[in-house]
Amino acid sequence: MDRIRIVGGQRLNGTIPISGAKNAALPLIIAALLSEETLILDNVPRLADVIQLQRILGNQGVDIMIAGKRPGDDPNSGRTLHISAKRIVDTTAPYELVSKMRASFWVIAPLLGRMGEAKVSLPGGCAIGTRPVDLLIMALEALGAEIEIEAGYVLARAKNGLRGGEIKFPKVTVGGTHTALMAAALARGTTVIENAAREPEIGDVADCLNKMGAKITGAGTSRIVIEGVTRLHGARHTVLPDRIETGTYALAAAMTGGDVLLANARPELLQAALDVLVQAGVTVTSTNEGIRIARNGSGLSPVEVTTAPFPGFPTDLQAQLMALMTRAKGTSHITETIFENRFMHVQELARLGARIQLSGETATIEGVARLKGAPVMATDLRASVSLVIAALAAEGETMVNRVYHLDRGFERLEEKLSQCGAAIERLST
Ligand code: UD1
User: Which structural domain, as residue segments, surrounds residue 319?
Assistant: First the structure.
């Protein structure tokens, strides 16, 4: 199993190219199931989760062609995938595949919309508290699906096709909104989604679906209206930049000090996180090329942050912010409202010398003057990278074990950081 070795204390200086967003690429690839024609996706990140999803779609008879590199191609741009779901041969998504990644459950929507049936295993994914699918099922039922749960599988049927309906989410759910959008695209009549998630990845998927011939308005707001169409056609779409990767490297640069350009990053995708960095005393500048993050000499100020659905501070940056605040001059509070139990990084950060107290949903972080390297264990995707951030500023060596979690969501992490001066390497065993 691979490990990552970091020797802390180097400032980050240089340019980090930001990849396409994992959380957009996954639903975009799934959206290809909605059409018999080819969907071409550009800027797809090279990630374990993307490869895993390709396996699931392969099972259903989908052909995926990955374009090779051509002379003159930008080495930092992502891959181009040609996805063709001409004939769906299997409407099952088995446990062995779905249990590894929660988002793969979302195939249920296009399978149901196009084929009238789907059998999808209940999901797995990051171990961050209970992550039910009741709201996704509620949305499908509102569009006329009949659902049964049997032996760990969700069996969904819509013999005469789905019909438009009203979906009112009692709480904001990204997966629920993606599912509702994809199911409604091919339903008969109009669907209205109330209290929809406003995450930029929802807007990206809606843009792509509209290029495929869907009729979606209001994506990016909490009320989305979808006029169902009878079929969708092929299209070409570029995956938007990853706001969580952007925020992660911004927090890393804030941690070590230095001056880093996050190339291709778009500030409007993570304004809440950039505002927190400014409060912490970091200089944030938007440029034509991306976002510049600089901290030279000045200490870090503590912050008070509560995670919230977009446009609030993202739960997917909570662990990384906590790593940064371990070195602030004073006491910070971070409250997690999206996922219970999303504090597995706390114990591991403590191994590096962090002082963090948990009380319910709130972590109290007392900044310390120094962290010290130690062996630590990656637990989930975002928690793992928080350990990398802490290690970059810790004295001596930190060994991060179980890094497969990092590979699920961060493309070439050690390469991107070492290019900016970090002492970081992957050890394969
Ligand atoms: C997506 C993101 C994930 C991010 C999360 C919140 C992807 C691939 N993953 O996950 O990185 O952390 O949004 O921004 O895009 N819930 C229910 N019932 C349901 C569905 C959700 O109670 O049927 C709850 C969840 O337990 C959680 C909250 O709703 O408390 C939000 O979850 P949701 O937005 O659905 O997260 P995901 O789509 O799984």
Answer: 3-19+241-427
Instruction: Tell me, in angstroms, the distance from the centre of ligand 1 to residue 414's CA.
Output: 28
- Is 177 found in the same domain as 89? yes
Contact 406, 245 (CB under 8 A): no
> In this structure, are 65 and 166 located in the same domain?
yes
Distance 386 CA to ligand 1 centre (A): 20
Our answer to whether residue 208 is catalytic in this structure is no
| CATH number, domain with residue 93 | 3.65.10.10
- The protein residue whose alpha carbon is closest to atom 1 in ligand 1 is 174
Contact indicator for 3, 214 with CB cutoff of 8 Å: no
State which ligand 1 atom lies nearest to the alpha carbon of 22: 8
Q: Among 174, 270, 321, 361, which is best to mutate for testing ligand 1, by the most ligand atoms less than 8 A from CB? A: 174
Based on the fold, state whether residues 360 and 406 are members of the same structural domain: yes
Which residue out of 336, 338, 342, 408 has the highest number of ligand 1 atoms within 8 Å of its CB and is therefore the one to mutate?
338
Q: Which of 25, 44, 93, 126 is catalytic?
A: 126
Phi/psi-derived region of residue 254, left when phi > 0, alpha when psi is between -120 and 50, beta in every other case: alpha
pLDDT in tens, 246-285: 999 999 999 999 999 999 999 999 999 999 999 999 999 9
**342, 386 Cβ separation under 8 angstroms:** no
Question: What total number of domains does the chain contain?
Answer: 2
The pLDDT tens digits for 91-123 are 999 998 888 888 999 999 999 999 999 999 988
